[in-house]
Amino acid sequence: MGHRILAPLGVAAFCLCLTPPTLALEAQVEGLEGAPADNIVNFLEGLDANLFSRSHLEGEVRRRTREALRVYGYYEPDIVVEFIGEEGEEVNLVIDPGPRVTITVMDIGVRGDAADDNAFRDAIAAFPLAEGDPLEHAPYDRLRNQLSRLALERGYFDSTFLERRMEVRPWEQSARLYLLLDSGPRYRFGEIRYSGSQIDEARLRQMLPFTPGDPYLAEQLAEYNQRLGQSNWFSSISVRPRIREEARLALPPTDVHWWDQVEYRNGGRSIEPRPDRPRIEASALTSAVVLQETRRLDVPLDIDLVPADRHQFEVGAGFATDVGPRLRFSWHQPWLNSAGHSLNHDLFLAAPDQRLTGEYIIPLEDPLRDSYRLNYGFRQRDIEDTKSLEASVELARRWQFDNGWVQSLYLRSTFEDFTQADESDQVLLLYPGISWSRTRTRNPRFPTWGDRQRLAFEYSSRLWGSDAEFLRSTLDSQWIRMLGDDIRFVGRMGLGAISTSDFDNIPPSLRFFAGGDRSVRGYSFESLAPQDEEGNLLGGQQLFTTSLEVQRRVTGNWWGAAFVDTGDAFDDWLPSDLNTGAGLGVRWISPVGPIRFDIAHPFDDEDAFRIHFAIGPEF
Q1: Which end of the chain, N or C, is more open, meaning fewer C-beta atoms within 10 Å of its C-beta?
Q2: How does it assemble (predicted)?
């Protein structure tokens, strides 16, 4: 039995081996150049010479060549076909295109409500052809498709083409183009029905980019869908317009044929139906006409929502030579109540540094752009010559502008018990601040393009009870760009400055230090700063760091990296010297995000190497 099955399979495999390979036809064109010649080559490129005899192949080549020339207005070409080689795998075409058809009549327009719509006007104004121009089919086809697409996108659901034809008269070398769209009336957004939402409907309506009664625009539906997604309140979002709701009048279904619904009376035929059968009254017919005449021109929306998980968790891990293993645990609650309040917590654990931070968000009238934020946190550090225990509370008002920038105005209170070198103190600071930030990215998991900026100013004064007076400013910038598909550049720069006469009362959390995998790789974490006479770190009043990294794809999701970092923390306005490190690394785009492994070497120490390992996004 097994041999009976294997035998046919063997014969089939043998036949497949004998099947001649596909022979794509290569064409060369003489007598014509530019787009028409390129179009001929493209039309013939997919032609398999093995499927035709020589005579049939020549006929197919002529047919395709004529078809390729017609779209450019050449309807009477003279074509000489010359095959090269015994297999006919190459063909040389000598073409006299003949006279070119020109446009003698062009009637293109829009009727109905769309006649006053700038989108349609602009589309017609951009049409590249005019009377007297050589005929090209592609612009006409594009305009026809564009008008159809605009009608659907902008709510002209009853639109139809009154005229849509192209008349070509090769014997006259003339063409007549007719394209007339009757858009009919424009529909408007109707009532909105929400289902499945755990958030107050009033809050969801505040996010609408339109109001019921506005002209329909598909782009605004997509924008609203995006806004609902950015809220993080829902795991599933479906925004569905009901384009038409037609009232119907119909007879109930019956299993009796029409000829059984008449009776014979007194030997004659009566056309009166039996009284027990359904009938259409005159009033019903009148109602149908009225319904048709008063058909509503609105588009109701059905918005089906599924709440997001109320508790979401993330875990990150890393390792560096100077701080050892690191662990980050995040707990997100994207919605706490029907008003859309949210709460986030973040726990960071490393041997020299432990942090717990929280953020409570209260959305305002525009939930995605305006909010109040309450931030709080605790931090303990034992790094190099720094020991610190810090607690802080911050109340912020946040705005997001149309250009993507976010402005935050905040008031922060910080208590810090610290020892820096041989200085120990406890300070209570109350200081307002303002910041502007923006993050842009494509493909957030492993950005192929993106940048992030943040500029902040903070001011503290003894006038309102702070233990130190200072003006502190910081600027951070990071960018990512691609060269082709396999080369990626990552750049970073950081600036900071403190103007104060109370530097001894400035806690370590506000002083500047450099070094580490987010600063100058090759140096231990926060090991670069001014020192006292005994070599203990004091922290700096100024900061400058910069980094440039080049990554190249090795294979698939594996990338190699080479980088140079430089920078320092210092007290003068300009640094006397900068510390520089360089190294090599590996990047793997894992399912949980990019994993980075770096080996860095400082230039001022020939024997030192440091390892940096991290998991998580760069922004």
Answers
A1: N
A2: Interacts with TamB to form the translocation and assembly module (TAM).
